[in-house]
From TrEMBL:
Assigned GO CC terms: cytoplasm
Superkingdom of source: Archaea
Signal sequence interval, chain numbering: none
BPL/LPL catalytic domain span: 6-197
UniProt source species: Halorubrum aquaticum
Keywords assigned by UniProt, alphabetized: ATP-binding, Ligase, Nucleotide-binding
Entry protein name: BirA family transcriptional regulator, biotin operon repressor / biotin-[acetyl-CoA-carboxylase] ligase
GO molecular function: ATP binding; biotin--[biotin carboxyl-carrier protein] ligase activity
Portion of the parent chain present: 64 to 321 of 324
UniProt lineage: Archaea, Methanobacteriati, Methanobacteriota, Stenosarchaea group, Halobacteria
A Gene Ontology BP annotation from the UniProt entry: regulation of DNA-templated transcription
């Protein structure tokens, strides 16, 4: 592995040609007491999405996991997932791809494939360009380590990705400089992580979920209604027939307006 300082400051960037999962490598570094490291791999063979789902990560993407030890309560950790989504959306916009955020952790290029057309959950409400997997360990009142895993389909053909996914190459018709893209992504993430109060306002501006009809699958059931806001530390506020409810975690689909 190569280590580089300076690129994407304030993190030291550790490069690998191939890894099982950059999140697993970052967690191993956490166990060794490290912090402020971004682990990057050209290719991942065992990368994960949420709920142990598979994440497809061939050579050509931007696969990175950022290990930090922010001095916040564990309950605030979801904010960092939102910060990553903002950083991804901004880095994509800078290379000419109009990315928006679907709560909580998908970065999409909006399309017309809403859930009512059925099919694979990938990309409902748009074509999925990137995903985020946040893992952490906390003590009672403080995060001990936080790993924010970011996968951006950069220089990949859509045919090599799951149905409903897209890539920067497919959207802009050309490759990006992955080194530069990574540097911008890390810088933007660091900026937001440093100023947690700026995260939610920035997230709201880039979100396509707010104002939409949604269906959210949560551990305790399905919530259907209109998404009206996001509240700290990242809960989706949904206006249902029974009134307002806050959803802390789940899979969200955008629905066609009835
Ligand atoms: C996510 O999960 O979207 C989080 C993905 C995080 C991946 C990064 S890469 C660096 C780091 N190291 C890791 O091991 N993981 C992180 P979720 O919301 O559960 O979505 C997963 C679903 O997205 C899968 O079930 C597929 O349907 C779909 N999918 C898989 N690979 C994809 C890809 N490359 N692009 C778009 N969709 C994909």
């Amino acid at each position: 592995a190569g280590i580089e300082f300076g690129l994407g400051a304030p993190y030291a960037v550790e490069y690998h040609d191939g890894l099982s999962s950059t999140n697993d490598r970052a967690r191993a570094l956490a166990a060794e007491g490290e912090t402020d490291v971004a682990v990057v791999a050209d290719e991942q063979t065992g990368s994960r999405g949420r709920l142990e789902r598979e994440w497809v990560a061939p050579s050509g993407g931007v696969w990175v996991s950022i290990l930090t030890r922010p001095s916040v309560a564990p309950a605030r950790a979801p904010l960092f997932t939102l910060a990553a989504a903002v950083a991804i959306a901004d880095a994509c916009r800078e290379v000419g791809v109009d990315a928006t955020i679907k709560w909580p952790n998908d970065v999409l290029v909006e399309g017309s494939d809403e859930a009512s057309e059925g099919g694979d959950p990938v990309g409902r409400g748009g074509r999925k360009l990137a995903g985020i997997l946040t893992e952490m360990e906390g003590e009672a009142d403080r995060v001990s380590w936080l790993v924010v895993g970011i996968g951006v389909n950069a220089n990949l053909d859509a045919e090599t990705l799951p149905a409903g996914a897209t890539s920067l190459r497919a959207e802009r018709g050309g490759d990006v400089d992955r080194r530069r893209f990574l540097a911008r992504l890390l810088e933007r993430y660091a900026e937001l992580a440093d100023d947690p109060d700026a995260i939610l306002p920035a997230w709201r501006e880039r979100a396509s979920t707010i104002g939409r009809r949604v269906r959210v699958e949560t551990a305790s059931g399905t919530v259907t209604g209109r998404a009206v806001d996001v509240e700290p530390p990242g809960a989706l506020v949904v206006e249902t027939e029974e009134g307002r409810t806050r959803v802390h975690a789940g899979d969200c689909e955008h629905l066609r307006d009835a």
